[in-house]
Amino acid sequence: MELRTQELTRYILPMREGGSLPALAEADDEFRYVVKFRGGGHGSKALIAELVGGLVAKSLGFRVPELVFLNLDSRFGITEPDEEVQDLLRASEGLNLGLHFLDRAMTMDPSVNHVDPLTASKIVWLDAFLTNIDRMRTNTNMLIWHGELWLIDHGASLHFHHSWRNLDDAPLDPFPFIRNHALLPYASQLAEADKLMRQAITPRTLSRIVDLIPDSWLQAEGDPETPAEKREVYRRFLTERLKNSSIFVNRAIDERKRLTV
Predict the structure, then answer these.
(1) pLDDT digits (tens, 9 = 90+) for 213-232
(2) What digits encode the pLDDT tens for the residues 60-74?
(3) Which residues contact 216 (CB under 8 A, 6 or more apart)?
(4) 209 burial class (0-12, 13-18, 19+ CB within 10 angstroms)?
(5) What are the φ/ψ torsions at residue 153 (nearest 5 degrees)?
(6) Of 103, 42, 92, 40, whose CA–CA distance to 69 is shortest?
């Protein structure tokens, strides 16, 4: 398991307003990418969540835009007139993360675009596993591209790492935020999805995904923990959460019952 590394060559435009300011940019392979910058609102943690979440989703068989490491040097975006963007780019020199741009993709609306119950249940399982709070009805972070369903934007996953406290308890979080999931009303096969997903991914795969987190994203000035020690925390979180999936699956089932009463 590995990711390509490309050089960013052209800043095209910001994707949306907000603290993280992701952008559409071009790399030296002449492809366009949605770039998540390490100098954005949540720093490298958003990139770690995007990397881990995207690769877990891909390993479980979901369609996810290709993830690519994108190197940004000091000359990139030098002609950009927006001072906020210039500050962001200066703070993001080095390794960032890009997702292959799905040109002309359309936002998936579950009230319009049919999703079968098992697929809906698998996606709910994925987001409960990752503690992804950002696949809501108002912003599904799902796209329809060439008639197929694609999952995007996992940067709000792994929310335990923002506090970095109670690390032994974090994998056992029942994740009550699943009540807001866009597909929960359609996820009538959560128990079956749990069985299938646990068979589809292994602790070894999760470990290999964690190994891909760059050292530079795990280092902070004055931090007593080494990158290797931090990787171990992520590894333990994912493997223990997989082992105890019944906790978040049962909570999702209960939350769905409340929706349908």
Answers:
(1) 999 999 987 788 999 999 99
(2) 999 999 999 999 998
(3) 38, 44, 94, 95
(4) buried
(5) 55, 85
(6) 92
Q: How far is CA 155 from the centre of its chain?
A: 4
d(CA 20, CA 18) in angstroms, rounded, equals 6
d(CA 174, CA 248): 4
Q: Which of 248, 107, 260 is nearest to 178 (CA)?
A: 248
pLDDT in tens, 112-145: 999 999 999 999 999 999 999 999 988 999 999 9
Sign of the alpha-carbon dihedral angle for 191, 59, 35, 19? positive
Q: Can you spell out the DSSP letters for 13-25? A: EE-SSSSS--EEE
* Beta strand 5-14 pairing with 67-72: parallel
DSSP H/E element including 248: helix 245-260
Residue 260 has pLDDT above 70, yes or no: no
> In the structure, what pLDDT confidence band is assigned to residue 20 with cuts at 50, 70 and 90?
low
For residues 122 and 189, give the distance between their C-alpha atoms in angstroms, rounded to a whole number.
Answer: 8
CA-based angle 59:159:182, to the nearest 5? Answer: 65
Residue 19 has pLDDT above 60, yes or no: no
Residue 18 half-sphere exposure toward CB, CA atoms < 13 A = 12
3-state secondary structure 204-241: HHHHHHHHCCCHHHHCCCCCCCCHHHHHHHHHHHHHHH
Interval 80-120: pLDDT, tens:
788 888 889 999 999 999 999 999 999 999 999 999 999 99
Record the tokens describing residue 84, joined without a space: 């906020």
